[in-house]
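User: What would this chain look like folded?
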Amino acid sequence: MAGTEALLQSLSRREPVPVADDVVRLLSALIEDVNHDLAAGQRLSSVSITPSA
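Assistant: Here's the prediction, encoded as C-alpha cells.
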C-alpha cells in the first residue's frame, strides 16, 4: 500500500515515475494531456462519470 501511495504522490507532483504498468502509463498520459491543454490556454471542463439511472 505504501508503494501505491508513493506512486500516486509522485504523479500528483508531476514527477517522473516508472511506466512499466499499463495503469501508470494511462495516468501519466492523462496528466500530460492536462498539462498540454493548460499550457495551450485551453479551458478544462468538469466531466461527471457517474452512471445514469
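Residues 2-39 form one domain. If you want, I can go into more detail on any region.
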